[in-house]
Each structure stands twice: as structure tokens, then as C-alpha cells.
């Protein structure tokens, strides 16, 4: 499960919330295409990937 938690600091390139992900999601994100998963999971993973690309300096918590 992917979660967002509060942290301090924000600027135009960094969101103020830390993104909590499981370590294996780092591998999953690399080749994710959305096949074989539920529509809810696909939508969530695509949102997370888009967020990471939009805010590359955002802190991640594993």
C-alpha cells in the first residue's frame, strides 16, 4: 500500500508530504505497465509514478 505522511518543508519542486512506499515498489515502478492488476491499483500506481516524476525531490520513506 502506498501512503502519504506529513513532513516539513516545501518548494515548487518538492511536495511537503513524504511518500511512504514498500521497498519493492521501487523495482515495480521501473517496469510498470498496468497489466494484470485491478483498476484501482493501476490508477493508484499511475498517480504515484506521475507524482514522483513531477516532484523528484520529494522524500520517500521505505
Q: Report the biggest beta sheet as strand number plus sense, adding barrel if it closes.
A: 3 strands, mixed
Total domain count: 1
Helix-strand string: EEHHE
Mean pLDDT score: 83
Determine the fraction of residues in helical runs and give it as a percent range.
40-55%
Give the overall silhouette.
Answer: globular
Sheet-strand content, in percent, reads 15-25%
- Tally of DSSP helical segments: 2
The end-to-end distance, rounded to whole angstroms, is: 11 Å
Record the strand order, biggest sheet. 1-2-3
Low-confidence stretches: 6-11
Radius of gyration: 12 Å
Tell me the structural class.
Answer: alpha+beta
How many strand segments? 3
Describe the structure.
The protein has one domain. The protein has a 3-stranded mixed β-sheet, with no helix packed on it. The protein is globular. The protein contains 2 helices and 3 strands. With 62 residues, the protein is of the alpha+beta class. The chain has helices spanning 23-31, 39-54; strands spanning 3-6, 17-20, 60-61.
Amino acid at each position: 500500500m502506498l501512503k502519504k505522511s506529513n513532513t516539513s518543508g516545501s518548494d515548487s519542486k518538492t511536495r511537503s508530504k513524504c511518500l511512504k512506499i514498500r521497498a519493492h515498489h521501487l523495482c515495480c515502478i521501473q517496469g510498470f505497465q498496468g497489466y494484470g492488476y485491478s483498476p484501482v491499483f493501476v490508477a493508484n500506481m499511475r498517480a504515484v509514478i506521475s507524482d514522483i516524476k513531477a516532484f523528484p525531490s520529494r522524500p520517500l520513506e521505505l
